[in-house]
Write a structure and sequence with these properties.
With 496 residues, the protein is α+β, with helices and mostly antiparallel strands. Helix content is 16%, strand content 22%. The protein has five helices and 25 strands. The chain is rod-shaped, with a radius of gyration of 63 Å.
Amino acid sequence: MKKGFSLLELTLVLGVGTMVAFMKFQDMKNEQESIMASTVGQQMKQIGEAVNGYINIRYDKLSTLSNAAGTGTDPGPRTCSGSVCEITYQTLINEGLLPSAYTGTNANKSSYKIILKRDGTTPNYVINGLITTSTAWIEGGKTRYDLLGNAMQIAGIDSGMTRTTSNAFGYGGQWSETSANFNNITSAGQLAFRVGFNSALYSIYLRRDGTLPMTGNLNMGGQSVYNAQNITANGTTTTGILKTNAAATVGTTLNVAGVTTLRSDLNVYGNGQIYGNLNSSNTVSGKTVISRGDTYTQNWFRILGDGGLYFEKYGGRLTMLDDNTISAGESNLKTNSVLYATEISSGNINSAGTVTAERVDVVDRVWASGNISSNYVYSTGNLDADGQINANTFVYINGKANVGWGCSPNGLQGRTSEGAILSCVNGLWQSSSARIERTQFLVYSGSNYGDICQSNIDSNGMAEQGWVASGSDACTEDGNDCSVDSVRCFAIRIVN
């Protein structure tokens, strides 16, 4: 048997080795291309984020299509024409949105072209943009859509590629643009990236024109918000101190757990629920203010307009009818203690107990089912009593008349100027102060005394004065003989 390899065997061995080496080379090449595509995608996403940041901070310039000032406040470069502005990677470096070492060329040796376009109407313009690679990804005359797809997977939903010289299509068909809107679409095979208002990545920014809502929480990091016009919240607003320099309007319930100090007006069109204290050094105004507890004031409780105090449960009220009168309407005013007043007038005072006053002036009548006790009771009219009028001292009558004058009605009591009591009897004033008056006199002559006292009264005019004999000290007045030489006569009369 011969030793060694035949030519055929050697050829087979070399062929297999070559094939294995070629396959290994292809694997290495595919891996390198995958790494490059991933890097290109990451680089496109990086510059896309930077452009979105630029739109956010330079919206005022882009919305007015203003060229860059070329100064520290607006370094540029930025060139605007028509409704389009163009910036470069250097613009983003100057604004601090890309690192200073950024070269502006991706791993595939392609630069970028950045076009920003103003859309919409004033004052709410929106800025949309498209970033493309300057050159298509072509190797050996073949457009590498496979590598472009790999790069798009890394760059995200806002990435895309050009399929023709006039159209760009987004990741998964999410969006599309034409060269009529963006002139940086020039050939098939370009990597593209959508930026601005219509992009998904731009949603992280708070739109300065208010057209893009937040998709997450806004954390100010302990910083302040100044010069805000209106702040509207659908949920809860939590703050250490709530301060306003103008009117505060609350459309629904305002819940305050602590002390609220107001130095101006608080206008509430809904309800204010306050579980602590409401302190105001000025005015608290509302159409209706309801307190479920007690209401305290250190000063006056003032009622504006024609209102008053209304008691909802029973329908009673206290109100002022004029500058001098407080009215309880049709309701009663009751106290278990003392009711003090300088003057009570116009209406009835009904008391089951005692009414005590230094002075009571009544225009009409005073009705009392009990006693009226006073140091002085004065009436300009009549004083009527269904029972007796008792006086522990004297009763003074100031009505003056003379006996014989006419009077009405019968039963009236009056007096003369001297103070004698008069009564109205049958329409004439008559004296009701009659009294018995007594006198005595001596008779010296005669022996037959009999009725000598009355005879003497009749003869000397005393009878006309109303005198009648009432007796004498004689032994007898009906005998014919008596030893007494003189007689002491007694007489009486009734005088008014």
